[in-house]
Amino acid sequence: MARVSRTFTCQSCGAVTSRWSGRCESCGEWNTITEEAAESSGVAGGPLKLVGKTKGRHIALVPMAGETAEPPRLVTGVAEFDRVCGGGLVPGSALLIGGDPGIGKSTLLLQAMAALSKTAPVVYISGEEAIAQVRMRARRLGLAGSSVQLGAETNLKDIVATLEEGKPPAAVVIDSIQTMWTDALESAPGTVTQVRATAQDLVRFAKRRGTAVILVGHVTKDGQIAGPRVVEHMVDAVIYFEGERGHQFRILRAVKNRFGPANEIGVFEMGELGLQEVPNPSALFLGERDGETSGSSVFAGIEGTRPVLVEIQALVAQSSLGTPRRAVVGWDSGRLSMVLAVLDARCGLSLGGQDVYLNVAGGLRINEPAADLAVASALVSSITGTPLPPDCVIFGEISLSGAIRPVSQTEARLKEAEKLGFKRAILPAFAARQRPSTKLDLIEISDLAGLVAKLTVDSSPRTRTVSDDEI
What we know:
- The structure is a single chain.
- Helix 9 (372-384) packs parallel to helix 11 (448-457).
- The protein is built from eleven helices and 21 strands.
- The model is unreliable at 39-50 and 459-471 (pLDDT under 50).
- The radius of gyration is 27 Å and the shape is globular.
- The chain has three domains: 3-40; 79-279, Rossmann fold (3-Layer(aba) Sandwich), CATH 3.40.50.300; 284-470, Ribosomal Protein S5, domain 2 (2-Layer Sandwich), CATH 3.30.230.
- Strand 10 (249-257) and strand 11 form a beta hairpin.
- It has 471 residues and is of the alpha/beta class.
């Protein structure tokens, strides 16, 4: 007879221990370990082992060479959502979407499912809202006439039994996975054990019936999807819905995608009628830019496969505190400290007693190191009070020696800048055979000291290469 063994599981990271403690040794969080029961058998309470001489069945092995058809896509009609998914939803795939509360996850998925319901049957299961609340949102978004099938349930067994009846739907939304529970476990909904078990059952259903399953996940205070990390490994794509509450822009970013490029982004604008697609985010991010103000630069970045131009704002002011402030929004604070150290050690700019504020306009978060040169330019512009040319884009990576390193996809960045009317670009120096074909005036910088000398001596740079001999 199976007996019940007691384990203690961290609700933050999923680590399992044999005894309770106030602090998890794996993730360091306090008061996150709870007691859970699990059925087991054996003298020591170990897992049940199958005894016998039954052999496993043989599996078919195929050669590496061969043709495999591309998986078909379910195009929802929301272009930015389809872009992040890799061209549309893949039947039999599982997606996990996370984001801060109130950021617009349910609104986005309701709009996408309403658009997809025109060509395929879809189901929306809500574990957090009643049917009346979902219908109220649909009326506000103008989607009351769509053919989306709604359900409000948290018992996973009942949900799977309903979906198994008849022809399976093309896509199913589970909002959210933290509210689902199965009676096979004694733990409460939202615990690590429940989230892992229910997610595994839903992924198994997706693979077995060919239905695209979209799971909505809560996030922790650090911005990570709550629950065990194993859930992110089980699904085919992990997507984050980002955005600042003070901005109307929302960024849909893929951090994992087995059927498309990772780090792809889709840009939306929150309005009265829900989320509106932004086909040209560069023009939107630069729409309210004032080019005559010091401390502002335009960075030509790459998000996934899309070039994006965004404004970087910096302010350097004398500090009245013993420890100067370093406030960063939209960029890595550690990367800012590195750029400040290089400006101090290699360029002779003393910033130790200055307050430094850095902001990426529009609520976009930049992760690539190619923004180093644009950040440094904005800082130097703020220190000297000299505005940068308004028709100039900047990109490049800074090393600890002060050298400017080249970055990838230079031509794509320059083409996007040229399309938006920019005339010149400050970028790392490159070999003659690598010179891109563009109409922009290219100002090549070999090290950070050359950039500082250029910005402090001449506020209107000409089209020529700044060499080390001129510094």
